[in-house]
Design brief:
The protein is an alpha+beta fold and about 170 residues long. It is built from 4 helices and 4 strands, in the order H-H-E-E-H-E-E-H. About 40% of the residues lie in helices and about 15% in strands. It has a 4-stranded antiparallel beta sheet.
Length: about 170
């Protein structure tokens, strides 16, 4: 009996001092996995947006930025003014930085403090590119008579690659 009691005591005693590496309360991963759009995916989005605008007889500039806000693809249709590239880039950058369609920022317009931040565009025409809860970047379109038309084309571009991106998760 004393041997069994001794073994039980040792088992209870060992449970008080677990064996294993000492760990901090909060652990952080050593690396962060970041999903990126492939260049061909960004190009497919830009082409789809341009095709949507062309179908309406509108010549546009289109910019796709990656999740860091850096241009990945820029396209300008044949007779679209050069200015459309700069504006489409600002729309894509703004949608990327704010993670929302730029039309949602248009409501406050010039009254917003964001209106004074260089490089942001607070009008319709830019939308995020997201799939399966992952943020990939954004697309901006410029050249139509209204920002709403630009944004409709941008949405076509974002939707064009959404299923492909979701399938790749």
């Amino acid at each position: 009996m004393t041997v069994l009691r001794s073994l039980a005591f040792l088992g209870a005693f060992a449970a008080l001092f677990p064996v294993g590496p000492v760990q901090a309360e909060e652990e952080f991963p050593l690396a962060i996995n970041v999903r990126q759009m492939h260049m061909e995916t960004a190009l497919a989005a830009a082409r789809a947006a341009m095709a949507a605008c062309r179908a309406e007889g509108i010549q546009v500039g289109v910019t796709v930025v990656d999740r860091r806000g850096i241009e990945q693809v820029m396209l300008r249709d044949v007779v679209a003014p050069h200015l459309t590239l700069a504006v489409s880039r600002m729309k894509a950058y703004t949608a990327n930085e704010m993670s929302v369609a730029t039309s949602t920022l248009e409501q406050n317009g010039v009254r917003s403090p964001l209106a004074h931040v260089p490089g942001l565009f607070l009008g319709a025409g830019g939308v995020p590119i997201e799939a399966g809860g992952v943020f990939y970047g954004a697309i901006g379109v410029s050249g139509a008579a209204t920002g709403i038309q630009d944004e409709a084309c941008a949405r076509v571009g974002a939707e064009e690659v959404q299923i492909e991106l979701e399938m790749n998760l």
